[in-house]
Amino acid sequence: MRHLRTPLGMAFVLVACVALPTAASPVTRSPVGPDTTVQLTAAARALVETRSRALVAPRRPAEQRPPVEVLGVRISPDLVRRQERAVRELETRNRAPVAGGPAFTEARTRLAARRTVRVGDLITLEAVEHTEVRYDTGAVTQSVRRGFDFRERGEELVLVRERVLDPAARPINDPDESPAR
Fold first, then answer.
1. Is 127 exposed, middle or buried, given 0-12, 13-18 or 19+ CB atoms closer than 10 A?
2. What share of the chain is helix, strand, coil (3-state, %, to 5)?
3. How far apart (Å, rounded) are the C-alpha atoms in residues 34 and 31?
4. Which of 27, 84, 73 is nearest to 50 (CA)?
5. Four-way CATH pick for 28-164: 3.10.350, 3.90.660, 3.40.50, 3.10.450
6. What angle in degrees, to the nearest 10, is found between the helix axes of 34-53 and 77-93?
7. DSSP secondary structure string, 85-108?
8. Are 118 and 30 in contact (CB under 8 A)?
9. Domain boundaries, given as residue ranges, for the chain
10. Cys-Cys crosslink for 101: which of 41, 96, 110, 138, Cβ 3.0 to 4.6 Å?
């Protein structure tokens, strides 16, 4: 009987030694490929471009609606709803460079990826948004650092969160009570 317990006990110890490092291992960062970064940047850019367009003359409803998918990256339904509210607020505010001044006539937004990091199933894209809005006699240009969080669900990528990384920044294409923060 003693011999049966000894090999069995050793088997349990061996299993515990193998399983313990796996369970206790910290989640490590892993690289994100350039193709994936392009996909993530395109999805993030679509959100900020939609808000920038809301600053100028009203457009057809289809042009005002934030996308639900860009290059295979889904936008979470909750984030789509928050973006729709933001677009409505920006459209009704009639933003201008100064209160009572001329309204914006054109808006252009670019998004430049700076860093993409994967930790577990979360991928964070840090990017700089460059937005230029024009009005009759001039233009306003602004650069803002933003973070975008994506979740990997199997083969699917889902944009779940957007935030401004500079605490003092007041992005021109965010509503006053920004849902993006």
1. buried
2. 35, 35, 30
3. 9
4. 84
5. 3.10.450
6. 30
7. HHHHHHHHHT--SSTTSPPEEEEE
8. yes
9. 28-164
10. 96
- Encode pLDDT of 34-76 as tens digits: 999 999 999 999 999 999 998 886 666 555 677 899 999 999 9
- For residue range 119-159, list pLDDT tens digits in order: 999 999 999 999 999 988 889 899 999 999 999 988 899 99
What single DSSP character describes residue 171? Answer: -
CB-neighbour burial class of residue 8 (10 A; exposed 0-12, middle 13-18, buried 19+): exposed
pTM over 0.85: no
Question: Which pair of structure tokens corresponds to residue 45?
Answer: 């850019």
Q: Which of 129, 134, 112 is nearest to 37 (CA)?
A: 112
Strand order through the sheet with 69-70: 29-30, 104-119, 122-135, 138-153, 156-164, 73-75, 69-70
> Token pair for residue 42?
């395109």
* Strand ranges, E, within 11-50: 29-30
